[in-house]
Amino acid sequence: MNDSAIGTTGSGHERFDRPRPRPYLGAMTIRPLVILPDARLRVVSEPVDRITDEIRRLADDMLETMYDAPGVGLAAIQIGVPKRVITMDVSKSETERQPLVLVNPEILWLSDEKRVYEEGCLSIPEYYEEVERPDRVRFRYTNLAGETVEQEADGLMATCVQHEIDHLNGVLFIDHLSKLKRDRVVKKFAKAAKRETNG
Ligand code: ZN
User: Fold this and answer.
1) Low-confidence residues of the chain, pLDDT below 50?
2) Closest Cα partner for 176 from 189, 190, 159?
3) 45 lies in which domain range?
4) From CA 86, how far away is CA 107, in angstroms rounded?
């Protein structure tokens, strides 16, 4: 099975899922994104019991939606599905995509050393702010083949994993900012949503 490859971030046991042939290929759909201040972004997502076709289809739609946006990571709740599934691709290359699907991801360890990255979020479009997070992370997840994978990452991938797992717990990257900054962006998006509703 050609479902793993060695990654370039961190050291050790990286595995990147490779898309495998799927009978329902072609059914991928770009789904509408859930945007701040939508209350669904605060929902704690439910664990996935079993990797079914429904989950594989969800992952396909998430990847399609993520690449279309474009973004480097997406949590299922961002398309309105409260399940513990995230997709990522930090390769930033259109020619050599490295899609990763993480089901029920869990953080096992975070480094004391921190790093600052400018983060953005597909649910908070066109807003970017620096966030400090642990620089390295060890995490565990189930892949679409149903295997348990343990992996360590640093840099962008470490930031992305933490950002996406936060989504599964109803946490947004703006929660890591000062209350002043957070209130300002929430207010801005609430106003925009109201304008849209009022036509
Ligand atoms: Zn996000």
Assistant:
1) 1-16, 18
2) 159
3) 7-198
4) 13
The tokens of 87 are what? Answer: 């997709």
What is the whole-number distance in angstroms between the Cα of residue 72 and the centre of ligand 1?
9
Write out the catalytic residue numbers.
164
CATH number at residue 176: 3.90.45.10
Contact 80, 34 (CB under 8 A): yes
Give the tokens for residue 67. Answer: 């690449």
Distance 82 CA to ligand 1 centre (A): 14
Q: Ligand 1: distance of its center to the CA of 122 in Å? A: 6
How far is Cα 163 from Cα 168, in angstroms, rounded to an integer? 9
pTM comes to 0.85
User: Is 60 a member of any domain?
Assistant: yes
